[in-house]
Each structure stands twice: as C-alpha cells, then as structure tokens.
Amino acid sequence: MQAVIRKWGNSPALRLPTAVLRESGYQLEQKVELIVSPGRIVIQPSEKVEYDLDALISGIHSSNVHDEVGFGSPVGHEAL
Question: Could you give the residue ranges of the DSSP H alpha helices within the chain?
Fold first, then answer.
C-alpha cells in the first residue's frame, strides 16, 4: 500500500487509512513510538505502564504521607 506525505499546518503528515489501523490492531488516540533510522520510520505501540499496587503501597512511609485535609462542614447536600 502506498501513501503520500503531505503538509499539515507547519508539519509533514501521513494519513493512515482505516484499513491499515484495523489490520495492524492500532486504535485512534493510541500512543505510539517512532523508531527512526536512515530511510526508515517504524511505528510501534508505546510500552504500557502498569503499576503494581503492592509495590506502590510498600513505598508509603510515615515520612512521605500527608496529613488529613478538612474542607469544613457541608454547605449543600453533599454525601458524607
């Protein structure tokens, strides 16, 4: 399949047909990485950052935990 690099504002742009996205498994708004080498541009999915809850919780210590914050009494129909 061929495509043409065109100008979009002040930047060059390449429009990807929907069939290309569908076949590759990519989605709109998906974050990707561009791997650039002479004569070649490769698009690949960005690494998903996954957090481990146990690891995050183990990082909580008395030195980095904040005090409770109060916002005063209810002024409307807030659920408490």
Answer: 18-24, 53-58
